[in-house]
Amino acid sequence: MTKSSEKKSYTLTPSWKHYLSGYLLSILAVPLAGIGLIGLYFVRKRHKSTRYIITDTQISSIDSKYQRNVDLVNIENIELEEGWWKRKLGIGNLILHTSASELNITGIENPRELKDLLEKAISAEIRKQQEEEKNKPKEPKYSPGSMDKMEYLTGLWQQGLISEDDYENERKHFE
C-alpha cells in the first residue's frame, strides 16, 4: 500500500500470492518447449495490470481494459470472500455492493483490515455529507427576482399609481 501525499490516496495491487497457481503452473511448463515462459509472461502481465486506488471519497478499480469508480457513500455492503487456502496465505477478495452494481477487489493482503478501514471511511464520508447537507443554505421559497418585483409593486401602490384592490390581487401571485 503506497500513500500519495498530494491527494490522500492509497494504491493497492493484488498480491503475488493471488496468482500463485498461475506462476507455479507456468514454471512447471517451462520444460515443455518454453510454453511456461509464455504462461509466466501472461500471468505477470495480468498481475501488474490490476490496481485499486482508494481516496477519501471513492474507490477506483483499474485494469488493462477498464476503469471503474465507486463513491464511498454509495457502498451499501462489503462482503469478504476467502477460502481456506487464501486464509492461510493471508489474502482474500472484497466485494463492494452498491444499489446498481458491485466492485470486486481481488487478491488483497490483510482483507479483514481493509474491510474495517473501508467501513470506517464509508461511515465518515456519510457523516461528512450529512453535515454538508445540514449546513447548506436553504433555498428561498420564492423564485429569484420575485422580491424585486414585489418591491416594485409595493412602490407603485405607495405612490398611489395602483389601487388597493389591484395591489392585493397582484401580491397574491408572489406568495
Explained architecture:
With 175 residues, the protein is of the alpha+beta class. The protein folds into 2 domains: 2-135, PH-domain like (Roll), CATH 2.30.29; 142-175, no CATH class. It has helices spanning 20-28, 35-49, 84-89, 111-135, 146-158, 164-171; strands at 2-4, 9-12, 51-54, 58-62, 67-71, 75-81, 91-98, 102-109. It has a 5-stranded antiparallel beta sheet, with no helix packed on it. The protein has a 3-stranded antiparallel beta sheet with strand order 6-7-8. A hairpin with a 3-residue loop joins strand 7 and strand 8 (102-109). Helix 1 packs antiparallel against helix 2 and helix 5 packs antiparallel against helix 6 (164-171). It is rod-shaped, with a radius of gyration of 30 Å. The two termini are 58 Å apart.
Fold blueprint:
Layout: E1 2-4, E2 9-12, H1 20-28, H2 35-49, E3 51-54, E4 58-62, E5 67-71, E6 75-81, H3 84-89, E7 91-98, E8 102-109, H4 111-135, H5 146-158, H6 164-171
Antiparallel strand pairs: 1-2, 2-3, 3-4, 4-5, 6-7, 7-8
